[in-house]
């Protein structure tokens, strides 16, 4: 599945890339393809894929398609899956990102009357700075609290009357539970929570909304593709709209690398159309999702993807069966008596047999057996569920680790 593509825009991007980046010019030369070879949408498949490893291992100024004098900012990935990936931005890149973040805010119902508490990382992490420029461009009040320091977060929520919270889902849950424990909800003005930077599902949405009395919006983004804010849910909460006027989207089978039909899950692949400093050519995001075949009833011209189901490089095989954390979150969202937080532990015994244990927080111990049954039906594995007291599993101000593979592979 690919979204509609303008060959002229793609050809113009390749011309900029080949004239500005020795690394990317060499990559295209080795693939035997250049700007002149792009004449119709089907020619996109002639271009080589780009991987995170390539960008990570190539010095940022060597990869960049503009001179260092034009670079006004750099950001880096969180390093969750390995060495940090550094990406550069020109003034136009920052402008485009600001416009996309502002669009996300409008889709989430944020207006100039709102006060947006930005509880995500600043500095090298491509989140806080990008979000703040979007909030300021919209004309809302930016409250740049950054991550962590829950006492200060609650103080600002109360004193400034913040109406929008922008944080990772893990940190939003942590704050929501703190507000509930102190019975502070009536003192807050919050009405919207925008979350992203990690995969989260309906169980987490339900907990946040019930504890804070807000509407939640799932945000999409990755450092290599500007950062958070390249897509967001609309008010229908049925898929994430992507700003494909700035980049082209494909969905491929991560094993065969062939496109899959609309509605079929696969790996998202993006090609930037205007990005100057760190352009992407068929970049394998490793994010697993699907494209909706039909336009959204909200009237948006932008296509939708399903909420991120996991990553193709995070899939774990247990006894020959592929396991994804989203499978657990989906089942938790269908049940009562268990919280949204969980950990998955994969072990191997002395005889070489693998086992999968899911730890959950349970108010109702009787729900454990039902959860085991539903997980076995959904995943196709015999799974052991261990219940712990509510609030026992760790919360994080950034991204929460949920899968622990203890096998020696």
TrEMBL record:
Domain AMP-dependent synthetase/ligase: 64-271
EC number(s) from the headed UniProt entry: 6.2.1.30
Occurrences of domain AMP-dependent ligase C-terminal (ranges): 320-407
GO molecular function: nucleotide binding; phenylacetate-CoA ligase activity
Keyword Nucleotide-binding part of the UniProt annotation: yes
GO annotation (BP), single: phenylacetate catabolic process
Recorded metabolic or biological pathway in which this protein acts: Aromatic compound metabolism; phenylacetate degradation
Organism domain of life: Bacteria
Keyword Aminoacyl-tRNA synthetase: no
The entry's keywords: Ligase, Nucleotide-binding
Major enzyme class: ligase
InterPro entries in the record: AMP-bd_C_sf, AMP-dep_Lig_C, AMP-dep_synth/lig_dom, ANL_N_sf, PA_CoA_ligase
Family per similarity comment: Belongs to the phenylacetyl-CoA ligase family.
Quaternary data: Monomer.
Protein name per its UniProtKB record: Phenylacetate-coenzyme A ligase
Source organism (scientific name): Actinophytocola xanthii
Source lineage: Bacteria, Bacillati, Actinomycetota, Actinomycetes, Pseudonocardiales
